[in-house]
Design a protein that fits this description.
Distance between the termini: 25 Å
Largest sheet: 7 strands, mixed
Shape: globular
Radius of gyration: 16 Å
Number of strands: 9
CATH topology: Collagenase (Catalytic Domain)
CATH superfamily: Collagenase (Catalytic Domain)
Bound molecules: zinc ion
Oligomer: single chain
Strand content: 15-25%
Length: about 240
């Protein structure tokens, strides 16, 4: 089966966020933009996904499950349903070899940012989807979520894998997985609108699909979807 990858998405550094700010008018809610290439999951797709056994056991895996489930029923019942299938062992040694695996899974990697061609500690996650070229490449057939193992992006000093409030300078794993799962649904790019994604994040309004903002360290703001996340998603499906 011939497959193609669409887009590389990272919880991006400030430079990418600034680029997006420049192209989005301050008042726009461009719902179509983020799925505009027309590629998403088949309607009501049930996609079983796995956690690779290189992911630390226990709370780390539990928070991944929490984060992926943030998008359940988020598109008015029409979007993909990601069904957790348990822990698996990959024969793929290069976890960035996305589409050769043939199933959806979550991996961790030390120094993901450098593996993606950026600087050290420049990324927390990277989640492309694969599309089946033999049926026109319209629909996603799998996703690969890659997470940094040690999470020193920005001022971060590692993951927080609990369910409460993270200590200072720890990245909330649940939040970042919820953000990455947005990309797994087919979401391309990030919101950068200053109201949706203020430079100083706002607990009640900052959207899960905002671009990478080091100020989101030690917050839980991305765990749950906000209004613009939800209607952008629902409109696409
Ligand atoms: Zn992202
Ligand atoms: Zn909106």
């Amino acid at each position: 089966m011939k497959r193609s990858i669409v887009l590389a998405i990272v919880l991006a550094a400030g430079s990418l966020m600034m680029t997006l700010v420049a192209v989005l008018p301050a008042s726009a809610h461009p719902d179509g933009t983020f799925y505009s290439i027309g590629r998403k999951w088949p309607p009501n797709a049930n996609e079983t996904w796995y956690i690779d056994n290189n992911v630390p056991a226990g709370a780390f895996r539990d928070r991944i499950v929490n984060g992926v489930s943030a998008w359940d029923n988020g598109a008015g019942g029409a979007g993909p349903n990601f069904v957790y299938g348990g822990v698996t062992t990959s024969s793929v040694t290069d976890i960035l070899d996305f589409c050769e695996r043939g199933y959806s899974a979550v991996f961790v990697r030390e120094n993901l940012g450098s593996a993606l061609g950026g600087g050290p500690n420049s990324a927390l996650g990277f989640t492309p989807s694969c599309y089946n070229a033999s049926v026109g490449g319209t629909f996603a057939v799998s996703f690969t979520m890659n997470l940094e193992r040690t999470a020193e992006f920005g001022t971060g000093t590692g993951w927080y894998t609990g369910t409460g409030n993270p200590p200072e300078n720890r990245w909330d794993l649940w939040s970042i997985v919820a953000h990455e799962t947005g990309h797994a649904t087919g979401f391309i790019g990030h919101f950068a609108n200053a109201t949706l994604c203020p430079g100083t994040p706002q607990p009640a309004t900052t959207e899960t699909m905002c671009g990478g903002n080091p100020a989101l360290v030690d917050t839980i703001m991305l765990r749950t979807l906000e209004a613009h996340d939800l209607h952008t998603y629902a409109n696409a499906y």
